[in-house]
Amino acid sequence: AEAIETRPREPVRPRKKSSIIDLSPGEVNERLAIQARESKWHNLVQKNLILKSGLVDKRKGLFARRRMLFLTLGPHLYYVDPVDMVLKGEIPWSPELRVEPKNFKIFFVHTPNRTYYLEDPEGYALEWCKAIEEVRIHTYGLRP
Ligand code: 4IP
Questions:
Q1: To the nearest 5 percent, what fractions of the chain are helix, strand and coil?
Q2: 61 CA to middle of ligand 1, Å?
Q3: Which of 27, 108, 123, 143 gives 104 a disulfide partner, CB atoms 3.0 to 4.6 angstroms apart?
Q4: What does DSSP say about strands 98-101 and 114-119: parallel, antiparallel, or unpaired?
Q5: Cα separation, 61 vs 93, whole angstroms
Q6: Could you tell me the pTM of the whole model?
């Protein structure tokens, strides 16, 4: 009698993602279509695909402002006033951009002209630093 394969085949597993920015053009388009449909932030981030987002307190001088921070394709790091729903600015990307976690809540984004003092009240500063560094390496390559 012929042997019959009774064991179900393993499903084809998607390739393991090495980073949040490791997306095929098809995946980008698919996710952008969903974002355009479902995200109230889509136009505020100038229709760029959001890779990571969250509330942070951005300190400037004595005071801090609560902002939604968006790491998007481009890349961009936009910050939005979540109450007025206004794009307030963006942290300029360059090969010199550097993140520095201070502790679980506070992290710095160093740029040639300014250091941004950011605080994640939820304590995910390290995740922010990891994501930004991944995007930096993907965009500009490893540091010499
Ligand atoms: C503001 O302080 C806010 O922190 C602004 O942040 C900041 O602009 C201003 O810095 C700073 O003076 P007050 O609201 O207490 O006046 P946001 O733009 O997120 O509202 P940026 O965008 O540069 O951090 P200046 O120096 O950029 O005006």
A1: 20, 35, 45
A2: 9
A3: 123
A4: unpaired
A5: 22
A6: 0.88
Which pair of tokens denotes residue 52? 């990571």
pLDDT tens digit at each of 144 positions of the chain: 566 666 666 666 665 666 898 899 999 999 999 999 999 999 999 999 999 999 999 999 999 999 999 999 999 999 999 999 999 999 999 999 999 999 999 999 999 999 999 999 999 999 999 999 999 999 998 866
Q: Is the CB of 65 under 6 A from ligand 1?
A: yes
The b-or-e profile of 70-99 (16+ CB within 10 A means b, else e) is bbbbbbbbbbbeeeeeebeebbebeeebbb
Q: Does 63 contact ligand 1 (Cβ within 6 A)?
A: yes
Residue nearest to atom 20 of ligand 1 (CA): 88
Q: Do residues 51 and 131 make contact, with C-beta atoms less than 8 angstroms apart?
A: yes
Please tell me if the CB atom of residue 141 comes closer than 6 angstroms to any atom of ligand 1: no
Which of 55, 59, 65 for a ligand 1 pocket mutation test, highest count of atoms within 8 Å of Cβ? Answer: 65
